[in-house]
Amino acid sequence: MLKWKPKYNQEDFDFLWGNCIFVFDTNMLLNFHRYSNSTNKDFFNVLTRVKDRLWIPHQVLLEYMYNQESVQIGLKNSYSKIDSAFKKIFNPALEEAKKELKQYKNHPFIETSEIVFKLEGVLSDFYQILQNTEEIHEIEVEQRGKLENSILDLFINVGRAFTEEELKRVIQSGQERYKILRPPGYEDRHKKDEEWKQYDNLIVPDKYGDLVAWKQIILHAKVIKQPVVFITDDQKQDWWRILKGRTLGPRVELIDEFSLEVELDASTPLPFYIYTGDMFLLQAARRFLNKEVINSVEEAREVRLNKDENNYAQLTDDQEKHIANLIEIAKGKNSDLSKIAKEKFDEYLYLFSGDIGNGYLLIDLYRDLNSLIDWLEMKLKEEN
Known about the structure:
By secondary structure, this protein is an alpha/beta fold. The protein is built from 14 helices and eight strands. The longest helix has about 45 residues, at about 60-100. About 30% of the residues are buried.
């Protein structure tokens, strides 16, 4: 018999919001460095209303400590990336425009030199604005830091770290769970073994980071006997039930596992739920502030989707090397298998390199690519 309802009504969600703890993922803590001041203020206002119910797993804090500096560096490096991108696009275009305008140099009405002067002026003004913005970057960061720190200071309730034995059990169970694609975490199963985090001289492989956080959430919920709302901007399908591009809610396997492990009172209609940062802000502002914060919700959504594109719109060097190595192995064992694999991977590489704006499609591509890697690895084993 199921310990959770297959469909929830407004009363169920009201009970959840009134009785749950709010657990924030690493990506949400990092996003407070990415949001504008106005969006951070709206988050701060709603979070102060539930500050006694905020909690983060030890794994989240660990990942945040490892990644916060890279986010700041990434923001700083944005200026040079924009500068390079625009010069790559517009400098050749400007030279081509000059070349085309030369044939109209003696036209009685077209002032080609004035057109070129204005085009050069527009680009010059843009680069000057970008340079001015970069020069005040550190000042802006320092001013924003007070608000960011005020938000992060609300997360004083942190779960305990796993012991060596507990960590070992989670990793061992993860190896079995990932074989059957049991959520969460299996979308990270192809992360290389050399990627890891360390605490108390213990190693947490990045491929098991989500699973460690999940187990820590369950362990804490067992102690406090409360339902959990998990806020994450991780859009992978090992957290979300996605059907034909639509996100329908958290994976039912997660709700089921949480219900069985935590054993809440039978009167609790909704034990576990997930919101993205933007949807949490929308609901929280309505419930706790009795107002809409549309602009902040839209910005939080854009940050989530832009971050997804950065994560999924391109393959890492390690992924490409792994794929190339598999194809090379296949070439030595079975030329037909090698040819089929190369055609399939080339198709995915083309799609990843394209201008794809739908975040859910990018997630589907990443998931299908993982499945393709699994397929080729299985075929290679069969050849042995």
